[in-house]
Amino acid sequence: MAGAGGVPAFGIDSRWSWITMGFCSWVLFMDTLSLKAFGTLFYGVIETFGVSRNDASWPFTVADAVSSFVGPLCGYLCRRFSCRKVLLVSSFFCGIGVLVCYFAKDVAFLVVFFGVVHGCSLAGVLIGVNVLVIQHFEKRRATACGLMYTAACLNAFVVPPLVEFFRSYYSTRVAFLLLGALILNGFPGTLVLHSPTKTANAEESVVSGTIQSSDNIGSPETSITSELSVESISVAYLKDGNTPLVPRTEYEGLGFKATVNNVLTCDFWVNAISYSMVYFDLVTFMMVAVDLASDRKITPSLSVFLFHTFTIGDCLTRTLSGFVVDSGYLRLQTVMVLGMFFQGVAFQSMVWATELWSLLACSLLLGLSTGSRICLSTIDLVRHFGVEALPVMLGTMTFVAGVFTMLRPPLVGYFRDLLGSYNGFLHILTATNLTMAAVWTVRYFLERRKE
Fold first, then answer.
1. Which of 68-82, 330-344, 435-449 shows the lowest mean pLDDT across its residues?
2. Three-state SS for 51?
3. Whole-number mean pLDDT of the chain?
4. Measured between alpha carbons, how far apart are the two ends of the chain, in Å?
5. All domains of the chain in start order, with CATH
6. CA angle 401-407-410, nearest 5°?
7. Which residues contact residue 374 at a Cβ distance below 8 angstroms, ignoring those fewer than 6 apart?
8. Which residue has the higher pLDDT, 83 or 225?
9. What confidence tens digit (pLDDT) does each residue in 137-155 have?
10. Number of other residues whose CB lies within 10 A of the CB of residue 97
11. In whole angstroms, how far apart are CA 389 and each of 125, 153, 344, 346?
């Protein structure tokens, strides 16, 4: 049924698609509150448990890594069961894993519950909402993803000062308790989420010919005299509504061998490394910003404003980058190159920044460059491998990001605890971003040459 302006009420690119995006934004907003509190909690763990920065970083690093390592499993579960079921379970335990950290006696307790339980749940949420939004949109896919991430990142305006208040007025343990309670508010939003239904147009165009024999549907010899349209809908059904009639080529695209072949392509690895760097840089900034500012004689109560300026830039480009790509003003590759380049410039500038205003400027530039790329790797995966392969491909991409995450504790410990400064770490982040900017530049010209 079409609504105003010919927009259908349900199905792909429908009014319900935008409602789904809104609920996905709410779930992502609440369940990622912990990511924006990494810096404040990291500082609190050092004070409360009297451990080194290396040891204090492990709960947050494990949460980050586990949420990436279980990505392939969550992708498989989304495809095997449904994104709805994965989101229901994941969103509930996402808050529980943080809430029980109130009872922590040592860092090991935090590693188990904040790191493993919360990390696994966060993976299910991230995979589930991404796949659902991609499924619901075709024409404005990048815009929808950008808007979802924009709404979700608004929590950075509230969480750092709020958690800092909990930590300083009560204690770090109470901060975990109250943060977990807030995260649980994302669970109700998962109750209305589901994959898109078939549109009327899709139903009419799935089978345009006749099936010569209905007795052996599913065998390779079945004769179908007309084309099957698999662009509008991935699975067609017989009249009983239960028996799937899936083109053989789609089954081949979902198999283990095909998935392995996809993972071995350059297209996958460029996107996987790019996504890993965006996520690594984002979480690293959230975790060390307060500590970095304290090295420059800036108090934690003032350093939380670094998150505000970061979020302003982040939200601005999350919205604009998707619209710019969907509208054809800039190619996806161009946005990636610009984002990588300015990310490198921002990290190098942080080496020289010694005052609050200069760190705020660097944070703003980091936010602009991060937000411009945060959802584009997922869009590029769909462009190269299709929607049906996305759950497992996205999960595998997050697994690669988890491998990169494990490098953070030794790097933080070596440069800050041993050498006494984050500057060397910032130099490494600068070099990796500029290198990937060069890779995307080469990829851009290679694709233009093929065209």
1. 68-82
2. coil
3. 81
4. 39
5. 4-196+257-450 (1.20.1250.20)
6. 160
7. 149, 278, 282, 314, 318
8. 83
9. 888 888 888 888 887 778 8
10. 25
11. 18, 27, 32, 35
